[in-house]
Amino acid sequence: MTEPSHEVADLGLAAAGVRRVDWAERSMPVLRSVRERFAAERPLEGLRIAACLHVTAETANLLRALRAGGARVWLAASNPLSTQDDTAAALVAEYGISVHAWAGMDPATYDRNLLRVLEPRPHLLLDDGCDLVHAVHALRPELLEDVIGGCEQTTTGVIRLRRMSAEGELRLPMVAVNDTATKRMFDNRYGTGQSTVDGILRATNAMLAGRTVVVAGFGYCGRGLAERLRGMGARVVVTEVDPVKALDAAMQGYTVATMADAAPVGDVFVTATGNRDVVRGEHLARMKDGAILVNSGHFDLEIDLAALDAAAVSVHRGVREHADEYVLADGRRLLLLCEGRLVNLGAAEGHPAAVMDMSFAVQALTTEWLARSRAGLAPGVIEVPAELDSEVARLELAALGVGIDTLTPDQEAYLRSWHP
Predict the structure, then answer these.
(1) Phi and psi of 362, rounded to 5°?
(2) Residue list for the binding site
(3) Mean pLDDT for the stretch of residues 225-239
(4) Strands annotated E in 12-58
(5) Is 91 exposed, middle or buried (0-12, 13-18, 19+ CB in 10 A)?
(6) What's the CATH fold of domain 190-346?
(7) Global confidence as pTM
(8) Which pLDDT does position 1 carry in this prediction?
(9) Taking the domain 6-183+351-400, which CATH number applies?
(10) Binding site for NAD(+): what residues are annotated?
(11) What is the pLDDT confidence band of residue 363, given thresholds at 50, 70 and 90?
(12) Where are the domains of the chain?
């Protein structure tokens, strides 16, 4: 096999990366079954795919499925801190994927690598945060004539896509993979909940039981995070701007407060909103000594880092791995994790493979659907066909050995009729 184009930290890490990818695959039976079918049917034959995704072992198994289906794939990282360098090396050396990513790259290199994976004039885009879609629209619009469509798998990315579409700027069909029932329930709720707590513990070794943790945002990610934290004995305070979500949190027994009121009592603050400046200067000014600042949203905008820098008289970098201490004028110390970037992939390994199995199976099947539906799709944000989500759920139930009931003919007739 000819070695694909690449810029990675060290190809010598490939063997370790293969072991990591193989370990993840053990917990990804649904995606494995999709890959086996793809290998037999080759539904993506001849297609070029550009991807901006977290470079992890779970992502590697998604890309293996796409390669098995006949596609050629170019991958850039969707976060400068989340790349597993051994996985990146394995993707190049063992799986024939072109990778331009390494851990700790600077923002300028991150942007350059987005353009590198667009150079082959891709037919399909797989995005995580809408950065790749933004790059092709803003910097390489001439490539849009070749693009069939793409998938977006984050809440933040879907928000950006819907704004582009509302303003008439989105010039290709993009499927909101993030908005499927399986993705929201398992990836956003259970995956984010567990992996965010994992990242906090790895970065701080802090005791969460008995401490007050403020969760900003009570969407699927925030809800899962609040559940996991309460299960570990933390007192959870929820902040929200949506009255329905705030009411939901209150009815579930959480304390609901404004960020201004939560700031003096919180020991740990975790943002999971998809918005910016959720924790601002006026909140930092009221926090107690030793408060920990954590972001679990896609971009490093949820904590106002400029305000934090301005308030600090000194910064101690690397007081622990993935943790920087900001000393304020009055002597208070605030601990920022992962430079305000996504903590579950910056300080930990992201979602468990079993969770990503379903999310990436939906993404693989949606990519196949896009390839087959190319002629009939208009620019805009498109929902994943319900039958694909149901298929993934059925495959996962089968892998778990779980059986469910089926409707009888009489029940089906009843549901189709308005007669009693």
Answers:
(1) -60, -40
(2) 56, 128, 154-156, 183, 187-188, 217-224, 240, 275, 296-298, 344, 351
(3) 98
(4) 48-53
(5) buried
(6) Rossmann fold (3.40.50)
(7) 0.85
(8) 52
(9) 3.40.50.1480
(10) 154-156, 188, 217-224, 240, 275, 296-298, 344, 351
(11) very high
(12) 6-183+351-400, 190-346
